[in-house]
Amino acid sequence: MPAMCRVRTAVLAAVAFAACTALVVPAQARTVIRDAEIEEVIRGYTDPIFRAANLDPAQIEVILIQDNSINAFVTNSRTMFIHTGLLAAAETPNEVKGVLAHETGHLAGGHVLRSREAASAAMRPAFLSIGLGILAVAAGAPAAGAALIAGSQQFAMAEFVQFSQAQESAADQAAVTYMDASGQSGEGLVTFASRQFRYNEMRSAQRIPPWMRTHPLWSDRIQALRSRVATTDHRGATDSAKELEEFRLIQAKLFGYTQNTGRTLIKYPESDQSPAARYARSVAAMRAADFSKADKEAESLVREFPQNPFYHELAGEILLTSGRVPQAIVQNRRALELKPGNALLQMNLGRALLAANDPAKATEAIALLQAATATEPDNVSAWYELAAAYDGRGEEGLARLAYAELRFSVGDWPAAASFAERAKERLERGTTSYQRALDIATIAETRVREGRRG
């Protein structure tokens, strides 16, 4: 398994949660999870919803973050983040879909941009109150001045909260619309909110003054959702058996990767021989370096479900991690055969081939990694592996170019410019590679200059 909202003054610090549409900590500070199986399942949830909202799925990035809190959020018009905690807490795919439909409502409604505009507008009465307070102090009325300055936050929040609550209600209603339009029930959002959020709200409602509530009360939202869902055509639609099984598998896989072995064995004891339980135990055993146990569970899955590429992927990961490179190549190759063109599976096979320290296999690995980076130009791991592959063959110019691509993909403009310039020294003029290095250097250096001026 292998954008941060900026709050300009302390006055609006309390509204950052709403302005960022539930973003609390910068995504860059957390662990982003890349996994071919989980991504495939999640895109199966999101893409029909995006299309129902008249959004192009190809233009929207969906990112999974390792975080136990129950959350999903959007940060602009084309990026949605999902916490692993949301997937762990949901009981059905429909519940996850309902939450993602709500976030799609924020995307389609342009709520992030409008929240920033509303936050800026909310600053005006706050600044006015602060200014009046300073004047009052200067005029010899310090008590009145202090009261005006202290009340500035409430003035800002009062205006912003009204706007934010309207957005949340609009996203709720949009979620039901999108679910129904895609042939699915909106009931999942109702059941998930009732189980996960209503209780916590009851405990915290007394501690939060009304003027600071950026979201409507869940009791009101749930009632509005329930009434709306009751009128929809597909309110009785349920998840298919296949969807339920896929969901159980990705939950088990995530549990094995993110929790310790003891917790995994409590949740998925040896007595449970379901595919999901064996999956979780195999992952947990691999992480604990108990490769015999990991092999046993993974091999049982591969034998029983030979057409599942992700069981072969896990078997390949176990074998590579334990140093059994030839066998790892076989399993990773089979995974890619069953799911051709998948960038993450291409990268896995490429990594295994490079571990063989065989020039012929390195050539195949480079071709696979080139294909992976063509599909995913921002795949940092694939660029790193490609750079290492070129470096191992003594192709210094191409290795430097791959490192330049890596730094370029994460917006590290100084390093991208530096590696691109160094790549140009080793690449033949007029080649596609040289031109790419020139382009990266030019763009990155421009960004560096712009940053200095800003």
Question: In words, what does this structure look like?
Answer:
It is a single chain. With 454 residues, the protein is mainly alpha-helical. Among the domains are: 10-229, no CATH class; 394-454. Helix content is 68%, strand content 4%. It contains 22 helices and 4 strands. It has a 4-stranded mixed sheet. Helix 4 packs across helix 7, helix 7 packs parallel to helix 10 and helix 11 packs parallel to helix 13. It is globular and about 65 Å long.
What attributes characterize this protein structure?
mainly alpha; 68% helix; disordered N terminus; single chain; 454 residues; 4-stranded mixed β-sheet
Strand content: under 5%
Strand order, sheet with most strands: 1-2-4-3
Output the helix-strand order.
HEHEEEHHHHHHHHHHHHHHHHHHHH
| C-alpha end-to-end distance | 38 Å
Determine the oligomeric state from the structure.
single chain
Can you give me a brief rundown of this structure?
It is built from 22 helices and 4 strands. By secondary structure, it is mainly alpha-helical.
Per-chain topology:
Elements: H1 16-19, E1 31-33, H2 36-52, E2 61-66, E3 72-74, E4 79-83, H3 84-89, H4 93-108, H5 111-138, H6 142-150, H7 152-181, H8 187-196, H9 198-204, H10 218-229, H11 241-258, H12 261-267, H13 275-287, H14 291-304, H15 309-321, H16 325-338, H17 343-355, H18 359-375, H19 380-392, H20 396-409, H21 413-424, H22 432-453
Parallel strand pairs: 2-4
Antiparallel strand pairs: 1-2, 3-4
Helix pairs in contact: 2-4, 4-7, 4-8, 5-6, 5-7, 7-10, 8-10, 11-13, 12-13, 13-14, 13-15, 14-15, 15-16, 15-17, 16-17, 17-18, 17-19, 18-19, 19-20, 20-21, 20-22, 21-22
